[in-house]
Amino acid sequence: MSLFSSIQVSASGMAAQRTRAEMLVENMANADTTRTAEGGPYKRKDVVFTSELQTSPFSAVFQHEAGQGVRIASVVQDTGPPELRYLPGHPDADANGYVAFPRLNPAEEMVDLLNASRSYEGNVAAITAVKDMITNSVSILKS
Amino acid sequence: MLDATTSNLQRYMDLLSTRQKLVASNIANADTPGYKTEDIDFQCEYASLLNGQPPLAYEPPGLPEKPDGNNVSMDRETRMLAENALRFNIASNLVTGQIKDIRSAIDEGKNG
């Protein structure tokens, strides 16, 4: 039954959106981080989605049609220049008294986070609808 | 299966589940750059399914495209999701009814 592969497709969507939300939360948590392992201020991270055929090794034997799921193709880092703030007393200030802060806009992150949350809900709704359909077809057996 | 009506209902449910899978793919890919909405031409595919051909997906025209090349409309997909589930529910109830009819014919035959 191809309905079960729909659940797999929606689950891939949920996983992708959750990772996106985690990235956005990480960005917001590090809004004022001036020191990182690779040196310099924190750089904003973003995810890139790509569609992918979903088949588990088991179901592939029985199903010839796979659904288009989604997966994270890559995590990209912001390459733009950091935001310089004049804070001469800061331990990370340069010779001119400027501190490099990550360049990110909290409003933008919040809107993206809301978007990720809504898309996650959309996938949950899809799983619920498909689950109802499977339950209905199972009830034919009971008649 | 039992008679012509039941096998037509079976095909209808097959087609609905195929469509539901496409809707699930569209929702999962709502934020994938360049992804295009996929759907099946229901009437056309129902006719070709009667001839034993597997359903084909097509890209419905007229959907506004976002700057990243994605044209998934969440409103359209949620409507489809609800509509498909309801149609499937109706079809499965009809099949249940058909089976009940036959069962009652068998049961009544026992008493005769």
Tags for this model:
heterodimer; A: 143 residues; alpha+beta; two-stranded antiparallel sheet; 3 helices; 48% helix; elongated; B: 112 residues; mainly alpha; 0% strand
Q: Can you give a write-up of this model?
A:
The complex is a heterodimer of chains A (143) and B (112). Chain A is an alpha+beta fold and 143 residues long. Chain A contains three helices and four strands, in the order H-E-H-E-E-E-H. In chain A, the strands form two sheets. Chain A has a two-stranded antiparallel sheet with strand order 1-2. The longest helix of chain A has 37 residues, at 106-142. The model of chain A has no long low-confidence stretch (mean pLDDT 88). Chain B is mainly alpha-helical and 112 residues long. In chain B, 64% of the residues lie in helices and 0% in strands. Chain B contains three helices and no strands. Chain B has helices spanning 4-28, 42-50, 74-111. The mean pLDDT of chain B is 88. The interface between A and B is large, with 39 and 36 residues.
